[in-house]
């Protein structure tokens, strides 16, 4: 049975801009490449996740969001952009162990088959009625939701895990 737990604080920065124009600033400032569509480069300790054609969610150390956003803003200079510390906007959860795919698949319309949702995949989807981002990490997956839905999402994920496998994966 899968285990569901809340992640500790996450440092997060949203970057909206022409991603091709931001590639150099991202590489020089954080040592990260712009990920491909529907992918994540790195992980929640240091990473960049594709959110939209003009948007990345950057993962940095807790407490570094403001400094990273300011530094990236300076590096982007005249390139039109929005770069902001959003560390307090969302909360994260880990769904780990045997059956983690089914825990999420029972709640999401996303294709979570290993052929479609493998290493470095990143999806914006729904868990029940909650907007969420999900991606494989470690021995399971991480889930990100708006903070105001955190308690509900934790209970939803734990109920899905408790209900057990349906034998799909």
Strands, helices and their partners?
Blueprint: E1 3-6, E2 11-17, H1 19-30, E3 40-42, E4 47-52, E5 55-60, H2 65-76, E6 81-85, E7 90-96, H3 100-105, E8 123-127, E9 130-136, E10 140-146, H4 150-162
Antiparallel strand pairs: 1-7, 2-5, 2-6, 3-4, 4-5, 7-10, 8-9, 9-10
Q: How does this structure look, described?
A:
There is one protein chain. Helix 1 crosses helix 2 (65-76). The longest helix is centred in the last third of the chain and has 13 residues, at 150-162. The protein has a five-stranded antiparallel β-sheet. The protein has a five-stranded antiparallel β-sheet with strand order 3-4-5-2-6, covered by helices on one side. It contains four helices and ten strands, in the order ββαβββαββαβββα. With 169 residues, the protein is an alpha+beta fold.
Content-based structural category: alpha+beta
The neighbouring-strand order within the major sheet is: 1-7-10-9-8
CATH classification class of the largest domain:
Alpha Beta
Using only CA atoms, what is the Rg?
Answer: 16 Å
What is the CATH topology classification name of the largest domain?
Answer: Alpha-Beta Plaits
Given as residue ranges, the uncertain stretches (5+ residues, pLDDT < 50) are none
Average pLDDT score: 96
Order of helices and strands: EEHEEEHEEHEEEH
Number of strands: 10
Per DSSP, the total helix count is: 4
Instruction: State the major sheet.
Output: 5 strands, antiparallel
> Which shape, going by the Cα principal axes?
elongated
Number of structural units classed as domains: 2
Task: Provide the CATH architecture of the largest domain.
Answer: 2-Layer Sandwich
The percentage of residues in β strands lies in 25-35%
């Amino acid at each position: 049975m899968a285990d569901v737990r809340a992640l500790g604080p996450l440092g997060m920065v949203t970057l909206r801009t022409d991603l091709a124009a931001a590639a150099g600033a991202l590489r020089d400032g954080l040592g990260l490449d712009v990920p491909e569509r529907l992918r994540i480069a790195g992980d929640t300790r240091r990473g960049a996740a594709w959110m939209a054609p003009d948007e990345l969610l950057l993962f940095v150390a807790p407490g570094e969001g403001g400094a990273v956003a300011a530094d990236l803003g300076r590096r982007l200079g005249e390139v039109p952009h929005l770069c902001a510390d959003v560390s307090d906007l969302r909360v994260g959860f880990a769904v780990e162990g045997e059956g983690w795919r089914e825990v999420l698949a029972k709640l999401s319309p996303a294709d979570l088959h290993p052929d479609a949702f493998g290493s470095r995949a990143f999806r914006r989807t729904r868990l029940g009625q909650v907007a969420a981002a999900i991606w494989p990490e470690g021995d399971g997956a991480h889930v990100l939701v708006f903070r105001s839905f955190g308690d509900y999402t934790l209970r939803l994920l734990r109920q899905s895990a408790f209900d057990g496998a349906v034998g799909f994966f």
